[in-house]
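ARCHIVE CARD
CATEGORY: sequence design from structure
SOURCE FIELD: tokenized fold
FIELD CONTENT:
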């Protein structure tokens, strides 16, 4: 059984993962409207992954004999100056989520909830991968640039990541 402090933090994380899914869906729509089909596909796929992260937390809470809560989420950002700003925003968001996962891990250890600690190890690893992935994209955008054919090449490179 989950204690109330762990349950509250897990339900908060469910909300954050739900928001992330909507954020990336919104970003996908922006990219599609800009003719950036590769980035749109990548972000759509990533939106679905975030929804899976939410579902995994939801199931863990319910399987632990508690009740997962689905809370209202705010409207995600939907306008960006350019694709570089968009992906810098995703990187910032992933760093924020990593911090929240780390807080959960710290709380699980403090509360001696080793089952939750063990469950959260997947998220620790996942966040490491997420930050590396988005940093790679931001770095590629910086190297390739957005001038001339740069934007076309950036979109193609991001689109390749959607296929992986």
């Amino acid at each position: 059984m989950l204690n109330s402090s762990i349950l509250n933090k897990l339900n908060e994380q469910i909300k954050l993962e739900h928001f992330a899914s909507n954020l990336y869906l919104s970003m996908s729509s922006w990219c599609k409207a800009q003719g950036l089909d590769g980035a749109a596909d990548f972000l759509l796929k990533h939106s679905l992954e975030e929804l899976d992260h939410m579902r995994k937390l939801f199931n863990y809470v319910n399987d632990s004999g508690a009740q997962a809560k689905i809370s209202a989420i705010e409207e995600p950002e939907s306008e960006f100056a350019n694709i570089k700003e968009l992906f810098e925003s995703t990187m910032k968001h992933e760093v924020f989520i990593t911090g929240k996962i780390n807080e959960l891990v710290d709380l699980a250890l403090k509360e001696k909830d080793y089952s939750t600690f063990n469950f959260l190890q997947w998220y620790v690893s996942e966040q490491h991968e997420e930050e590396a992935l988005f940093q790679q994209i931001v770095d590629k955008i910086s190297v390739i640039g957005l001038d001339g054919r740069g934007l076309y090449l950036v979109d193609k490179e991001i689109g390749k990541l959607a296929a992986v």
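CARD ANNOTATION: Residues 4-163 form a domain with the Ferritin fold (CATH 1.20.1260.10). The chain has one domain: 4-163.
SHELF: design records, drawer C
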